[in-house]
Amino acid sequence: MQFTNNGIYLFVLLLLSTSGFAQDKVSTENFPAIALTNKIDFVDSKFSQPRFSCGFLIKYETDTFAVTAKHLLKIIKTDEMKKLTLENYIKSWMLYPLDK
Which residue has the higher pLDDT, 54 or 70? Predict the structure, then answer.
C-alpha cells in the first residue's frame, strides 16, 4: 500500500512539473489591425447596426474596396428590400478597427 501511495504522489508531481512545458509561446511581433467592424446606418433607424460583422479592405491598383460577408447583410435588410441592394436604404456605412 505504501508503494502505491508513493507512486501516485510521484505521478502527480511529474504531471505538475511538466504542465508548464505544454504552453504555446506568445508572439511578441505586432501585426497591423486588418480586421474591421461594420457600422451601418439605415434610413429607417430600426435596422441600423452600430457594430455588425467583420470586414476588411483590399487595395487594388488605385482603388480600395471594402469587403464583408453578403449573407450577413441579408439578416439586416429592410422589409422593403426585395433583393439585397443598398441604394436608397443606407445613410452611411463605415468600417473601423475592432479595438475601437
Answer: 54
